[in-house]
Design goal:
The protein has 444 residues and is an alpha+beta fold. The protein contains 13 helices and eleven strands.
């Protein structure tokens, strides 16, 4: 993008000019006569020294803020990677098949998908196959309100809303979703049988707290739109564990599962449990489906691990960008600390030589220089902690399982920055201990 490139180059040029403007103006005000009279020795004024220290403190503060933000995101990502999604994601392959626009009747849809499942099940390396309108991390196929037969009908604003997902028998077994109460769907749950529904644990606790939901009845949709033929009462036959349907970083929602044989759809997905590497089965599974209809579109072929990774892609990108900026800021802060202390050592060569000539030990000189650098660093860390405490609250929506003011993260980052500063100060400080007093005094 030429516009972005030109803007970036222009911004870089403007930053360079502004960064060099103040030092240039200060250099222009230098008294040449005084400088020549001093024999060309390094000189510095209180204003310039104060400016260097202020910039160093600002660098340390900024790097701490960025490092704290990156640290919080790292902890959030760690928490997300260890969240139980409610199913077994390993060795799962997912794909979609659509019959939209082909004019299939409900019976033809059932026959097609039954044959499709049977052919895929016969592929070598396939352990089990199930059908579903959607798979975890991609959300429910649709959401809607419902009413319970044994509960008062609430106002429209207070009506519970649940995800609705049409699935086939063996769906729960294929994904490794646990049955907590009752039973799962079987082939007997068809268009001729009693309408049934399986619910998740959260819905059971919400609607029937301290009750056994098995055998209870519910209807999907608004009360005024109820039609016994299209919206029959459904018997709750099973309760399964909660599943992160909308992504591992999202809250658990109310969820209902419906047998697809009772509510056929012209667009269903397949979930395939493989013996091992599921990606290696993708081609064979597609061939099995095309054996039924070679023109049938098969799309969205993903392993479940890929889907889980994709659901965290935005968070991962944010983490990488902020971590990169934080690392760069830390590097610049370390270079800045080293530069300021090294320059200070050069300016104080005569003073250090005189101290050593009067009996100061190398460790005394080392402590003197380290104290100077660490004092500035601690001021920067203190200001950075205050700024980070105020600013990280704005990134609370990006965090998961960790507070925006997490004491552990703040403490670890502060100690890390202090150690980096100690190393940056140590190098010029060690050099200062090797100053020869006679040479230092003679050079003055």
């Amino acid at each position: 993008d030429k516009t972005v490139l030109l803007f970036t180059l222009g911004l870089a040029g403007l930053t360079s000019v502004l960064s060099g403007l103040l030092p240039a103006l200060q250099a222009a005000k230098t008294d040449l006569q005084t400088t020549l009279k001093d024999g060309g020795r390094l000189t510095t004024g209180a204003a310039r020294d104060g400016m260097r220290k202020a910039l160093l403190i600002a660098e340390v503060s900024l790097s701490l803020v960025l490092l704290v933000g990156a640290g919080l995101l790292v902890r959030s990502m760690w928490n997300l990677l260890h969240v139980d999604p409610g199913f077994k994601a390993d060795n799962l392959l997912t794909l979609r098949v659509s019959l939209a626009g082909r004019g299939y009747s409900d019976q033809q849809l059932r026959m097609f998908y039954d044959e499709c499942r049977a052919r895929v099940q016969a592929v070598p390396g396939v352990r089990s196959v199930a059908l579903a309108q959607s798979v975890p991390t991609q959300g429910a196929s649709w959401n809607g309100v419902f009413i319970a037969a044994d509960k008062p009908v609430p106002s429209r604003a207070d009506m519970p809303n649940a995800g609705r997902l049409r699935v086939s028998p063996h769906y729960f077994e294929t994904l490794g979703i646990k049955l907590l109460r009752g039973r799962l769907f079987t082939t007997a749950d068809n268009s001729e049988s009693q309408p049934v529904v399986v619910i998740n644990e959260t819905l059971a606790r919400r609607i029937w707290p301290n009750e056994d939901p098995i055998g209870k009845r519910l209807k999907l949709g608004l009360p005024e739109n109820q039609d016994e033929d299209s919206k029959p009462w459904r018997e709750v036959v099973g309760v399964v564990n909660d599943v992160k349907m909308n992504g591992v970083d999202r809250d658990i929602t109310l969820q209902t599962y419906l047998p697809y044989a009772q509510m056929p759809s012209n667009s269903l997905g397949l979930v395939v449990r493989a013996e091992r590497n599921p990606a290696a089965l993708a081609s064979a599974v597609e061939q099995a489906i095309h054996a039924i209809d070679k023109d049938l579109p098969v799309f969205s072929v993903w392993t479940m691990d890929q889907l889980l990774g994709n659901s965290l892609a935005q968070r991962r990108l944010t983490l990488v960008l902020l971590a990169s900026l934080a690392t760069l800021a830390l590097l610049l802060a370390a270079i800045g600390i080293y530069g300021v202390i090294a320059y200070s050592v050069r300016l104080r060569t005569h003073e250090l030589g005189l101290r050593m000539a009067l009996g100061a030990q190398p460790r005394d000189v080392l402590a003197l220089i380290l104290k100077q650098g660490l004092k500035l660093t601690l001021i920067g860390i203190g200001l950075g902690l205050v700024a980070a405490f105020a600013l990280t609250r704005w990134m609370a929506s990006l965090l998961f399982g960790v507070p925006a003011t997490d004491v552990l993260t703040f403490g670890v980052i502060a100690v890390t920055l202090l150690l980096v500063a100690l190393v940056a100060c140590w190098i010029p400080a060690r050099r200062a201990t090797k100053v020869d007093p006679m040479i230092a005094l003679r050079s003055d």
